[in-house]
Design goal:
It comes from Chryseobacterium endophyticum. This is RagB/SusD family nutrient uptake outer membrane protein. There is one protein chain. The chain is mainly α. It has one domain (23-130). The chain has helices at residues 2-10, 12-15, 25-28, 32-40, 49-52, 54-60, 73-79, 89-111, 119-130.
C-alpha cells in the first residue's frame, strides 16, 4: 500500500504544468505586447476582400444605392428584406465578420485596465477600439 502512495506522490510535480496553446482572456491581457497583438486582431477581418468588396455590396443592395442588373435570388432577397434570407447566405458571413471586429474591440475595452503599459499606449489602443 505504501508503494502506491509513493508512486502517487512522486508525480504531483509532473502534473503541475502551465497551459499551452490558445491563451484565455484571463491569461492574455497583461503586457503592452498583448495589448498591441489583441488590438491588431481588430484589423485582421478587414483584409478579407469580402469585408469591403463584393460581400459589402450585399448590404448596399438592401438600400436604394444599388440596383442589381441581373436576376439572382440572394441579392433580390437582401433587397426585398426577405425574412427567410436575413441570416443566410452571403449576409450571414457579413454579420459574422463585422461582429468579430466588434467583439475584439470590446475585449480591448474590457481588459485595458489589466495591462501594464503607459497611459499613452493605452489611450491609443482604447481610441482604436472605440472607433
Amino acid at each position: 500500500m505504501s508503494g502506491i502512495s509513493v508512486m502517487l506522490l512522486s508525480c504531483i510535480g509532473e502534473l503541475d504544468v502551465q497551459p499551452e496553446g490558445t491563451p484565455t482572456e484571463a491569461s492574455f491581457w497583461k503586457t503592452e505586447n498583448d495589448l498591441i497583438t489583441g488590438a491588431n486582431a481588430m484589423y485582421r477581418p478587414l483584409a478579407d476582400s469580402e469585408f469591403y468588396g463584393r460581400g459589402l455590396f450585399w448590404f448596399i443592395n438592401a438600400s436604394d444605392d444599388m440596383v442589381t442588373g441581373r436576376s439572382k435570388s440572394e441579392p433580390d432577397n437582401a433587397k426585398n428584406f426577405s425574412s427567410n434570407y436575413i441570416a443566410a447566405g452571403d449576409l450571414e458571413t457579413q454579420w459574422n465578420k463585422r461582429y468579430t471586429v466588434i467583439g475584439v474591440a470590446n475585449r480591448v475595452i474590457r481588459n485595458i485596465d489589466n495591462i501594464q503599459a503607459s497611459a499613452t499606449v493605452k489611450n491609443k489602443y482604447l481610441g482604436e477600439a472605440f472607433l
